Amino acid sequence: xxxxxxxxxxxxxxxxxxxxETPPAIPRREPDLPTPWAAYSRQxxxxxRDITQRRIIKRTR
Length: 61
Hints:
By secondary structure, the chain is an all-alpha fold. It is 70% helix and 0% strand.
């Protein structure tokens, strides 16, 4: 065997090993679970909107 055929055989062996390997499994992302802070944030946002709307109504009267 000459060196070219040895190189070709080595490359073919590596390619065969790569083809056999399974791709790495991508873990599934867990859904974001609601936290108490999310509810608190919503409450604060609604309170801010309510107060702001009352101020706007007072200004326009």
